[in-house]
Design goal:
This protein has about 140 residues and is an alpha+beta fold. The protein is about 30% helix and about 40% strand. The two termini are about 30 Å apart.
Length: about 140
C-alpha cells in the first residue's frame, strides 16, 4: 500500500468506496468539485492501481475539517485507516493548523477508537445528525 495525493485518475475508485461505505455517498460531481477546491486536501491509499481508501479535509485558515474517511471493506483492519489519519495529522502539524475536527457516528466504536489513538477528543455531539439509520454524531477534535 502507498499513499498519494488524490488526482482525477482516482475519482472512479473513490466513488466506488463512497457508494459502498455511506448511506448518502457523495456524487461524482461533488468529489470532482471538492478535489478542484484549493482549500481541500485529499489523500488516497492505493494497492497497485486500485484505490483502497481515502481521506478528505477542508482547510480554513488554520483549521482542518475532515469530510470523509473510508476504506474498501476487503482492506479494513490492515492499517489503511491508520495510515490515512496519520497522513492528515502530519499535514496538520507541518502546516501549523490549530486543530483538526470531524464527526463520527456514535455507534462506530472502531473509528472512535482509531481517532482517540491519534489524540482526538470528544468535544460535542449532534443529535440525530445521521440518517439511514438515524444516529447521533460525536464531534472529535485533535488540537496541536
Amino acid at each position: 500500500m502507498k499513499l498519494e495525493k488524490m488526482t482525477s485518475a482516482h475519482i472512479d475508485g473513490v466513488c466506488k468506496i463512497e457508494e459502498a461505505c455511506f448511506a448518502h455517498p457523495w456524487s461524482r460531481q461533488s468529489v470532482e468539485s471538492e478535489l478542484a477546491n484549493e482549500n481541500s486536501v485529499f489523500i488516497v491509499a492505493v494497492e497497485g492501481e486500485k484505490v483502497i481508501g481515502y481521506i478528505g479535509m477542508s482547510v480554513v485558515i488554520d483549521e482542518g475539517y475532515i469530510f470523509n474517511v473510508a476504506v474498501d471493506e476487503a482492506f479494513r483492519k490492515k492499517g489503511v485507516g491508520t495510515a490515512l489519519i496519520n497522513e492528515l495529522v502530519t499535514y496538520g502539524k507541518k502546516n501549523d493548523l490549530c486543530f483538526i475536527t470531524l464527526e463520527v457516528r456514535e455507534g462506530n466504536q472502531a473509528a472512535i477508537s482509531l481517532y482517540s489513538d491519534f489524540g482526538f477528543i470528544k468535544v460535542g455531539e449532534r443529535k440525530n445528525y445521521y440518517s439511514a439509520p438515524t444516529e447521533n454524531a460525536i464531534l472529535m477534535t485533535k488540537y496541536f
